[in-house]
Design a protein that fits this description.
The complex is a heterodimer of chains A (354) and B (268). Chain A has 354 residues and is mainly α. Chain A has one domain: Orthogonal Bundle (ABC transporter involved in vitamin B12 uptake, BtuC). Chain A has helices at residues 25-48, 56-61, 66-100, 112-127, 133-156, 164-188, 194-202, 210-229, 231-237, 241-246, 251-273, 279-291, 295-319, 328-349, and strands spanning 157-158, 161-162. A two-stranded antiparallel ribbon of chain A has the order 1-2. By secondary structure, chain B is an alpha/beta fold. In chain B, the strands form three sheets. Chain B has a six-stranded mixed β-sheet with strand order 6-7-8-3-9-10, sandwiched between helices. A four-stranded antiparallel β-sheet of chain B has the order 2-1-4-5, covered by helices on one side. Chain B has a two-stranded antiparallel ribbon with strand order 11-12. In chain B, β7 (167-171), α7 (179-196) and β8 form a beta-alpha-beta unit. In chain B, α4 runs parallel beside α6 and α5 (121-133) packs across α6. The longest helix of chain B is centred in the C-terminal third of the chain and has 18 residues, at 179-196. Chain B starts with a helix and ends in a 5-residue tail after the last strand. The chains are: A mainly alpha (354), B alpha/beta (268). Chains A and B meet through α9 and α10 of A and α3, β6, α4 and α5 of B.
Chain lengths: 354, 268
């Protein structure tokens, strides 16, 4: 062995053994291209099938045909909305999991989606006579998501310290509470609203407009960029609040930023799709197993993977019992429930925290 | 090691008082630390050793007193620049989610990197060197969850090393470690003190290790510093009896001349 000091600084150090054990730009690009390909394929497949048969070539070429009207007027905005909502829920799920250091966190379980849905329902019921209710409902949903998040956050804060486990429990309680409040509203309003309320509770992607897709996509993009900017800090947060602080992270500020960004994202998604649960749980978990936990890759990977997952889930929702529809939230919950239990069991055997 | 004492003053605490809730854990502790020096903080459980480290690392606010880092008040540093000067390894290290050993060590480079920067070859070489120093190269690819407690401890020490700071604050760095790795770790940090002029503060329960490796020892009890100075001056039978409330024998290792501290057991 060469005993000369600082000799290891020379380029003779063999780093080949590290290959694949850390995130490189090349690895990141490789996986994101694969996931983008998967998303593209799912978009094509989902746009090609539906309850009404559409001749794709005619839809593209003949703007006067019924095929054109169905494809561009109904199916495409719905598929795109599915992609946007799935992207939001999965990537916000990753960020919330990092924040509470628990892979069981997501917008639904933390009560954020439920709060947003309750706000949206109240706005719908109280303002339905007003001509501007269309614009108001999404805004109220976002506001309620933020209020729900802050409520959970403040209540979980004990002596100025945030225990991730407490946060998770309070979120679960809030989630049940919001659900109960929604049922209460449901039983006092007239029957006319019943379908809308079910829509919010179960999660659905029925008939969105391009304008709605654009608005949600913009809000999602803003929130997501904020998350990406803090991706490395989220890695450090895995080591605990104190260790993250010792390594240069302003933890309280990071929490605020992440909560705000995820509220925007989830509020926007819920305002158009209601509560679609478990997407923020399943997609991040599978990707974490496959790609590792580095949030610089995991966040964009969940964005793409969540979009693809939701597009396919909605395809099943639209076509499984056509011409009837299953709410897409029922599809994700049917997959997600058993998955959640599997994760709980798995965690019982091998704790994520040391 | 008297040369080290004459070196630059890097950290100075004066009359530090700190609380957990209403419990006063530090009641006016003063200490100083010089470049190239290893300072051991010893004392019984609950003496406030870890709390002092937290105050010095800036993660626990003090009620009174001052801490100066390189001549500037600790408060005048933002988190990130603090992290380029001081590395801390806590007593217990949890990690959520699965990261490879290499990824954890590379996290030590975070204070030196921008939000969207990937680790450079130089960062990897630094991580490589840190892993090698703590005998971890063979484990670099393994998920940290699969490691034993002692191996994990070394990973966090390597992470602190990769942070390339002037000061390291180590809370019980050798708990859970076997004899060889205890010796390795202390000689490693000793070497860093010599080569890079790094200053190390370590809380220790092992008084013999403190006597063997530290330039100076700070003896604490009930949130106060009882004595400070060279191991020979501080680790005396009288001081230890007073602080630990138990009989001890302090002698010399006949083959090396090193200070040896042993409890005196009373068997009935």
């Amino acid at each position: 062995m060469n005993a000369a000091p600082h000799a290891e600084g020379a380029s003779r150090v063999d780093l080949d053994a590290f290959e694949g054990a850390y995130l490189t730009r090349g690895r990141m690009i490789f996986w994101l291209l694969i996931l983008a390909g998967a998303l593209f394929a799912s978009l094509i497949v989902a746009a090609s099938f539906g309850s009404a048969p559409v001749h794709l070539f005619r839809a593209m070429t003949d703007s006067m045909s019924a095929d054109h009207a169905i494809f561009f007027g109904v199916r495409l905005p719905r598929v795109l909305m599915g992609a946007v909502v799935g992207a939001v829920l999965a990537s916000a799920g990753v960020a919330l999991q990092a924040l509470v250091r628990n892979p069981l966190a997501e917008g639904g379980i933390l009560g954020i989606s439920g709060g947003a849905a309750l706000g949206a329902i109240l706005a719908l019921v109280l303002l339905s006579a007003s001509p501007i209710s269309d614009a108001i409902v999404p805004m109220v949903a976002f506001g309620s998501a933020l209020v729900a998040t802050l409520a959970v956050y403040r209540l979980a804060l004990i002596d100025g310290r945030l225990e991730p486990f407490t946060l998770l429990l309070i979120g679960v309680i809030f989630n049940a509470f919001w659900g109960a409040a929604i049922m209460l509203v449901n039983s006092v309003v007239n029957f006319y609203y019943a379908h809308s309320i079910l829509f919010w509770l179960m999660g659905n992607l029925e008939a969105p407009t391009y304008r709605e897709v654009a608005i949600v996509a913009c809000l999602a993009a803003i929130g997501f960029l904020v998350l990406m900017f803090r991706a490395r800090d989220l890695n450090l947060l895995s080591l605990g609040d104190e260790a993250a602080a010792e390594m240069g992270v302003e933890v309280a500020g990071l929490r605020r930023v992440i909560f705000f960004a995820t509220s925007i994202m989830i509020g926007a998604a819920v305002s158009v799709s209601g509560i679609i649960s478990f997407v923020g749980l399943i997609v991040p978990h599978v990707l974490r197993l496959a790609l590792g936990s580095d949030h610089r890759l995991l966040l964009p990977a969940s964005l793409l993977g969540g979009a693809a997952f939701m597009v396919i889930a909605d395809l099943i929702a639209r076509t499984a019992i056509a011409p009837s529809e299953i709410p897409v939230g029922a599809i994700t919950a049917l997959c997600g429930g058993p998955f959640f239990i599997y994760m709980l069991r798995r965690e019982g055997q091998k704790p994520f925290s040391l | 090691m008297t040369d080290a004492i004459r070196n630059e003053l890097v950290l100075k605490a004066d009359g530090v008082v700190a609380r957990y809730g209403s419990l006063e854990v530090l009641r006016g502790v003063s200490m100083d630390l010089h470049a190239g020096e290893m300072l051991a903080i010893v004392g019984p459980n609950g003496a406030g050793k870890s709390t002092l480290l937290k105050v010095l690392g800036g993660t626990l606010a003090r009620v009174r007193g001052s801490v100066e880092l390189f001549g500037r008040p600790l408060e005048s540093y933002d988190r990130r620049s603090l992290a380029t000067l001081v590395a801390t390894v806590a007593q217990e290290n949890a990690i959520a989610f699965q990261f490879s050993v290499l990824e954890v060590v590379l996290m030590g480079r975070a204070p030196h990197l921008g939000a969207f920067h990937f680790e450079t070859r130089r960062d990897l070489e630094i991580a490589h060197s840190a892993l090698r120093h703590f005998d971890l190269l063979a484990l670099a690819r393994r998920p940290i969850q699969e490691l034993s407690g002692g191996e994990r401890k070394r990973v966090f020490l390597a992470r602190a090393l990769a942070q390339e700071t002037k000061i390291a604050l180590l809370d019980e760095p050798t708990a859970f470690l076997d004899l060889k790795h205890v010796a390795d770790i202390f000689s490693r940090f000793r070497a860093l003190c010599g080569e890079r002029g790094m200053a190390v503060v370590a809380t220790l329960h092992d008084l013999n290790a403190a006597a063997l490796y530290a330039d100076r020892v700070l003896l604490m009890k009930d949130g106060a510093a009882i004595a400070g100075g060279t191991p020979e001056a501080v680790l005396t039978e009288q001081n230890l009896r007073e602080v630990y409330d138990t009989e001890v024998y302090v002698g010399r290792n006949p083959s090396s001349g090193a200070l040896v501290i042993l409890p005196i057991a009373h068997r009935s």
